[in-house]
Amino acid sequence: MGVSLGPDYTNLKLEQTEELLRPFRRVAGASTPRNGWVRAIRDALGLSAMQLAARLNVTRQSIEDLERNEASGKITLERLTKLAGAMNCRVVYALVPEQPLAEIQRDRAHTIARRQLEPVSHSMKLEAQ
Hints:
Blueprint lengths: L6 H21 L9 H9 L3 H8 L3 H12 L5 H10 L14 H28 L1
Helix pairs in contact: 3-4
């Protein structure tokens, strides 16, 4: 069982995480290129699949497979990071909440409270009859 550090610590952690998320919130709505970022960057750099394959010591077919997997969301972060490094890029990874974290936390607390109060509310309605 974990040690509770209190609401001040929780609020501080929430604020710090929101601050870390700030730059990611600005780009979260950006659209991904149709054929994925790897292909878009490779094409922009003028690299052929064969040239990128040589940098990674893999086959051209492997690059094409990896690009397809990236575009469809099936690539691993490890492989994406290797591809990025071979093109002098880096992977920037974040989970960006749809709402501020405090709102998510408040909404979750309301849901739990409603669920816990439902049986009491039902009993009170029965007693009032």
